[in-house]
Design goal:
The chain has 271 residues and is mainly alpha-helical. The chain has nine helices and no strands. The mean pLDDT is 88.
Length: 271
Amino acid sequence: MNALLFYCTITVYLLATIAYLVYLAKPSESLGKTARRLIIAGFIIHILFTLDRYLEAGHTPITNLHESLSFFSMSVVGVFLFFERRFKIFVLGSFVTPVAFLLLAVSAIFPTALRPLNPALQSKWLLVHTVVAFFGYASFAVAAGAAVMYLIQENLLKKKRLGGMFQKLPSLTTLDDINYRCLTFGFPLLTVAIISGAIWAETAWGTYWSWDPKETWSLITWFIYAALLHGRLTTGWRGKKAAILSIIGFFVMLFTFLGVNLLMSGLHSYK
């Protein structure tokens, strides 16, 4: 059953991604609604898959790369649906659902078998730390999607290409607002994740901070987003500069999450 739900989720996410990309090429309200129904259906199946794995494993299924990538994907879709509903912009899905699909597809590469829980992970902090972190990551993913749209729209406006793609994308003000709202949603979550992780580390390893590669890169990610928000609030960073830094922050965050696990060894290496 678990495998069936997993592959059903991948399939529906793929169909939703195709629908959103077609919508980007030829926007229509009916196609936009169809794409949204598909991603909602995929999200529901994804939740069922996660719950089924939780019941089978007996713990929060975010303890290896297969489970973590899957949960990251589900979080991206959940945060996207929240902001899509708030701003009522179907085209945002054309830039976000491909990310969710790719994350889930990549998760299939890694071992899916359930294994005994590492002693360090046997803690009440597992649920708090990981869930909060992934919803923060997901917010940054949506912010990056809005940032990419901003840069495309800004470039089209600069070159005075005011037809075609320009007409399909929201205004620069709207895209900048989406980016900002995502950041203000994700940054506190990332902060809570780092603090809860430090508390968890003290109970598991006897120290709040050991400069493990994951801890170091998490701090780097935090500083990037802190600088971005500080710049927006105090020096008026808006538009292109904020969009570029959001994209840079997203890729640093991806390296923190995935690259560190694959390329560096440390206390947080759970593959």
